[in-house]
Design brief:
The complex is a heterodimer of chains A (255) and B (239). Chain A is mainly alpha-helical and 255 residues long. Chain A has helices at 5-17, 20-45, 53-60, 64-85, 87-94, 98-131, 145-172, 175-195, 201-204, 208-216, 228-252. Chain B is α/β, with parallel strands linked by helices. Chain B is built from 9 helices and 9 strands. In chain B, the strands form 2 sheets. A 6-stranded mixed β-sheet of chain B has the order 5-6-7-3-8-9, with helices on both faces. Chain B has a 3-stranded antiparallel β-sheet with strand order 2-1-4, covered by helices on one side. The chains are: A mainly alpha (255), B alpha/beta (239).
């Protein structure tokens, strides 16, 4: 008998599902998107001129800006919670191959985070559509790929933010520090790029939140931004870098 | 068998363990003694692969801990009393560890029963007393029915009944032919629990002996221990 990816992934799944705080954070991310969808839909109901279907879709996925904080924070806590409680030593004693450990953590939480992200995106979209029901605003069908793709990619974006959280957690080890770093990393470069206006676009087009709001979660990218698929690939790249750095530091440091 | 060979561990400029060598064999409870800050916990962490040695090595059954194919089946460890997420139940904590090493889930109930926590299995660990937390740590150590047990100050927080229970458990585990290494600063407790002793001070080996031999050096085991460690104690009050 030996431990392998499967057994370690099972361990991580049991740990994840046995914490109530995990479920609360995932519910919070769903609620953020539902609230935004409802708010946008209601806001546009009496709007003149009558809103387009695209406008509703584009904006009703905007709750992801808040949802990403919950999903990202949970990704961090999946790792840092082990350090603050001391469980990390029992975990590493059971699984001394630490890169395998982090890979299992990332797969288990990443899967849950992408699933939650997709469900939250769908919920945000449905909330938006429900809130415009009976108004002159046209319904946006998911049969139309232009509507379906932003919904799917927004879900993937949320899952990827969760993975960045796992990597940051392994690197920084302290919940507060890692959550601060994630939030600062998401918003500070965006604000700085914004100060430069048009001149900030060459950098801004690669910043997560700007990619989310102007490319990933909308039916057509804002001029100057990279396409949604490319933006998603950049996000996956960020997560891969965060996990690789987290994995190397976890393997090298004493726990 | 645990073999520590020329082990040195530095944290920055501090030397926690200094060319320490000893072996711990099966069939006896080996007490690991030393004043506060003498390097007991560091040595145990290196044996368990949690800290990397600066020099030398520590082997369990002839292998480095990291190379063990199924660690919990070979080594069980208790390092600190409260190393559990407070929001998780005792059962969930043990189930996760068992799953990690592909141990049969029935082992969780076995060890809960063995440490007397069956009735508290569904409670969240945050509400556990220190004694219950120690019992949960010991349950985790026994999960894989390992041949080697490493316990760092497992008596802390146990009431007299718990101390007697643990003493008898450790002696029984040793009688079954297991390797049992127990660190403690409670000399008198070690005199009734342990057979062999490893005494360290300032990260160096001071004695590798038996309780009987060390006791013979002075009026009591405590006196003998204090004489032995007198030169290697960092903090001492005046008389």
């Amino acid at each position: 008998m030996t431990y392998d990816f499967r057994s370690v992934a099972r361990m991580e799944w049991i740990k994840l599902r046995s914490l109530r705080s995990a479920w609360w954070l995932l519910v919070a991310s769903m609620l953020s998107m539902v609230a935004m969808g409802i708010g946008i839909g209601l806001g546009y109901r009496g709007h003149t001129p009558v809103a387009t279907a695209d406008q509703i879709v584009n904006n009703s996925l905007g709750g992801a800006i808040l949802a990403q904080l919950f999903v990202g924070a949970l990704g961090i806590l999946v790792v840092t919670g082990e350090y603050s409680s001391g469980t990390i030593r029992a975990t590493v004693a059971a699984v001394p191959r630490r890169s395998l450990l982090l890979a299992a953590k990332a797969c288990v939480y990443g899967g849950l985070a992408i699933g939650t992200g997709l469900a939250a995106s769908l919920a945000g979209y449905l909330a938006g559509q429900l809130a415009i029901a009976g108004s002159p605003v046209p319904h946006a069908s998911l049969g139309d790929t232009a509507n379906l793709v932003p919904l799917l990619l927004t879900g993937v974006y949320l899952g990827v933010i969760g993975l960045i959280g796992v990597g940051l957690g392994a690197l920084i080890r302290h919940s507060g520090g890692a959550i601060g770093a994630l939030f600062a990393g998401l918003f500070v470069p965006m604000i700085v790029a914004g100060l430069f206006g048009e001149a900030g676009i060459p950098v801004g087009r690669f910043l997560p939140v700007l990619m989310l709001l102007n490319s990933i979660s909308v039916t057509a990218p804002v001029p100057g931004m990279i396409p949604a698929w490319a933006a998603t690939a950049v996000m996956v790249g960020y997560a891969a870098v965060a996990l690789a750095i987290g994995g190397v530091t976890l393997s090298r440091r004493d726990v | 068998m645990i073999e520590v060979r020329e082990l040195t561990k530095r944290y920055g400029s501090t030397i926690a363990v200094d060319r320490l060598s000893f072996t711990v064999g099966p069939g006896a409870v080996t007490g690991f003694l030393g004043p506060n800050g003498s390097g007991k916990s560091t040595t145990m962490r290196v044996i368990l692969g949690l800290d990397a040695p600066s020099r030398g090595d520590a082997l369990v059954g002839g292998r480095r801990y990291r190379d063990l194919p199924c660690p919990l089946r070979e080594v069980g460890a208790v390092l600190e009393a409260r190393a559990f997420h407070p929001g998780r139940t005792a059962r969930a904590h043990l189930s996760a560890l068992a799953a990690g090493n592909a141990l049969p889930p029935s082992r969780v109930d076995d060890v809960l029963d063995q440490v007397g926590l069956t009735d508290a299995a569904g409670r969240r660990v945050g509400g556990f007393s220190l004694g219950m937390a120690q019992r949960l740590g010991i349950a985790a150590a026994l999960l894989g029915d390992p041949g080697v047990l490493i316990l760092d100050e497992p008596l802390n927080g146990l009431d007299p009944e718990g101390i007697r229970w643990l003493r008898e458990l450790l002696r029984e585990l040793a009688r079954q032919g297991r390797v049992v290494l127990v660190s403690s600063h409670l000399i008198n407790e070690m005199s009734v629990t342990a057979d062999r002793l490893i005494v360290i001070g300032q990260g160096r080996l001071l004695a590798e002996t038996t309780v009987a031999d060390l006791s013979r050096r002075s009026a009591t085991l405590e006196d003998a221990f204090l004489e032995l460690t007198a030169a290697a104690t960092d903090f001492r009050g005046s008389r």
